[in-house]
Amino acid sequence: MDAYRIVGGKGLEGEIAIGGAKNAALPILCATLVEKGTYILKNVPALKDIKTLSKVLEKLGLRVENLDKNTLKVVNEGLKSIEATYDLVKTMRASFTVMGPILAHEKRAKVSLPGGCAIGARPVDLHLKGFEALGCEIQIHHGYVEAEAKELKGAKIVLDFPSVGATENIIMAAVKAKGETILENAAREPEIDDLCNFLVSMGAKIQGIGTSKIVIEGVEKLYPGEYTIIPDRIEAGTYLVLSILSKGKVKVKGAVREHMDSFLAKLEEMGAEIKEEGDLMWIETPVENLKPAIVKTMPHPGFPTDLQAQIMTLMSVVKGTSEIKETIFENRFMHVSELNRMGTNIKIDGNRALIEGVEKFEYAEVMASDLRAGASLVIAGLYAEGETIVTRIYHIDRGYEALEDKLVKLGAHIERIKVEGV
Ligand code: EPU
Predict the structure, then answer these.
(1) For a 10 Å CB count at each end of the chain, is N or C smaller?
(2) Ligand 1 nearest-atom number relative to CA 191
(3) How many C-beta neighbours within 10 Å does residue 203 have?
(4) Distance (Å, rounded) from C-alpha 317 to C-alpha 345?
(5) What angle do CA 85, 89, 91 make, to 5 degrees?
(6) Which parts of the chain have pLDDT scores under 70?
(7) pLDDT of res. 116
(8) Which of 117, 122, 129, 401 for a ligand 1 pocket mutation test, highest count of atoms within 8 Å of Cβ?
(9) pTM metric for this prediction
(10) Helices (DSSP H) in 12-106: which residue ranges?
(11) Which of 328, 330, 370 has most ligand 1 atoms within 8 Å of CB, for mutation?
């Protein structure tokens, strides 16, 4: 199994480029199921999750081809199956988001329930309520959701919670439904806007993009074409933490500031001064000058759960007591015990973590429990004097494109090694 060997304390310097947003590229790829035609998608990050979803799409009958590292050509000549099977869906929950577009195309779909996940139970009840409202009959048998409708009809849907996946699935099911769908309490993540903008570029009629009330007027046909995915705000946030730890020597290239407001506001509250020039963003304020803070993860535009582990890593070396309340996922503190193996002082009390700042990270052997947790351990490893081994980096490969190559260019000593077992 692959692991990272990091020799920390090397003093990083240089520009680090942000790739396309994983969580925008995934639903946009799913959306190619909605209409026959040829799609060219640019700025698609080269990631394991994209490969997994490409396999799901191929099994459904689409052709997915890399024109270059970050450009995909998807050809939809009609679906040859309406079923997404457990072997693929269990490896990546985001593949449940094929259900809405398959329904839009075929009016029936059979998709495996995703099963458990390290960060929480993550049910799909809100997705299913949405499909029902659009006129589907839903049955769950033997671990599969089967949905069928004579005709998908627009409806008013109020989500109990602004779920990202449910919002995406419902929008995709509704774009070709008959009549108007009003989706209230919709998620407002920039990745949802990107999906909507992609659909609009194909002729979908969607209003209220970027708000919690999305209105979709069903159309008969869409017209596939070319689209460029937005930059990854979570990758950018992760590398901004590196920028702080390097006293501004690391500069993040290509981030979109408006997508990162809550994260940047929190860093500013901690005393960080965010500098920008052209498409570069960096922070020179030394970590010793930062103040502790309280973070509560929330749906967008609140503080993103996907940057919780990374800001916790930063707070671990900020003098004083910081606090993080995780409200999105019930089990997203798996990185705490691993960070504590690296010398941090973090205590968990239910969904709250209390972080007592320490002077420095210590090298250790640690294990990535999920993608963002893995990234936070790499950050700590880069700033711990000595050799850190991070195992289970298959999690990191799911969401950080060419992580070690990008870090090596900054002067990091990080390499991929093989280790026994898991
Ligand atoms: N939820 C329900 N019922 C549902 C759907 C969601 O109870 O039907 C709950 C979930 O269990 C969770 C909360 O609502 O507690 C939020 O889930 P949401 O549906 O918003 O998240 P998601 O669509 O499963 C996406 C991202 C995650 C990111 C979350 C929150 C993708 C592919 N994944 O997941 O990304 O953490 O939104 O912003 O877009 C990551 O990239 O590391 C990652 C985990």
Answers:
(1) C
(2) 39
(3) 15
(4) 9
(5) 130
(6) 116, 422
(7) 65
(8) 122
(9) 0.97
(10) 22-31, 48-60, 86-89, 99-106
(11) 328
